[in-house]
Design brief:
alpha/beta; 3-stranded antiparallel sheet; binds zinc ion; 6-stranded parallel sheet; SIR2/SIRT2 'Small Domain'; about 240 residues; 2 domains; Rossmann fold
Length: about 240
């Protein structure tokens, strides 16, 4: 398998993951046929909606939280742990907010869009677990408030109309990298999608594993349109990783 050969040859391979790696953990993606934005208006994940209707905003996030909090990592997340432990990948840069990479045991994870398990006050930044916030929301049916200043709490995720976190660090890693393994990303959300593009444009290898076509398929070295868990399992078997 060519993917294993490329990974073995690379000096600084990274993985770039999106919603497609978590659909097999029963977390819906956004733009797929069963995607979240088929059921909900994407505006519900925006800063303006949070400001306008914080109670409705928390109703939406409470639903998302429940799905995510109960989800377990799948074989694709586990395969990435093995690749990292055996030093074949240096970093996982993820667009996901579900924490499943860390739950699986991956250590070097950059969460570009934050994670839903923590929340913080929009006024003073004091943190509280999302679980506690949601308990409060269900009790009062109102957006949870900060214990310290009374400001509105919000999940520690990047909302539409807000800048992506850690993008400078992620880009620095991309400039160092000579191989990017894209898993389950439609590569349509910028600036996140710049990461694989940077690796390719500076001469690295680009491998894309995604069910649907992506805008970067034409410049990729390898494109595999299959489920992430199946492909990743095959890769670690090929590399005989344990
Ligand atoms: Zn506060």
């Amino acid at each position: 398998m060519r993917v294993s050969r490329i990974l073995k040859r690379a000096n600084y391979a990274i993985a770039f993951t999106g919603a497609g790696i978590s659909t097999e953990s029963n977390i819906p993606d956004f733009r797929g046929s069963q995607g979240l934005w088929k059921k909900f208006d994407p505006r519900m994940a925006s800063r303006s909606y949070f400001k306008e209707n914080p109670d409705g905003f928390w109703d939406f996030y409470a639903k998302r939280y429940e799905v995510i909090a109960n989800a377990q990592p799948n074989d694709a997340h586990k395969a990435l742990v093995l690749l990292e432990n055996n030093n074949y990948i240096k970093y996982i840069i993820t667009q996901n907010i579900d924490r499943l990479h860390s739950k699986a045991g991956s250590k070097s994870v950059i969460e570009l869009h934050g994670n839903i398990l923590m929340s913080y006050c929009d006024s003073c930044f004091k943190e509280k677990s999302t679980e506690e916030c949601i308990k409060e929301f269900y009790k009062t049916k109102k957006a949870p408030k900060c214990d310290y200043c009374g400001g509105l709490m919000r999940p520690a995720v990047v909302l539409f109309e807000e800048p992506v976190k850690l993008i400078d660090i992620a880009m620095e890693i991309a400039y160092r990298s000579d191989c990017c393994l894209v898993i389950g990303s439609s590569l349509t959300v910028y600036p996140a999608a710049f990461i694989p593009e940077i690796v390719k444009r500076q001469g690295g290898d680009l491998i894309i594993i995604n069910i649907d076509p992506t805008p970067l398929d034409s410049i990729a070295d390898i494109v595999i349109r299959d489920k992430a868990s199946i492909v990743l399992k095959r890769i670690i078997e090929n590399m005989e990783l344990k």
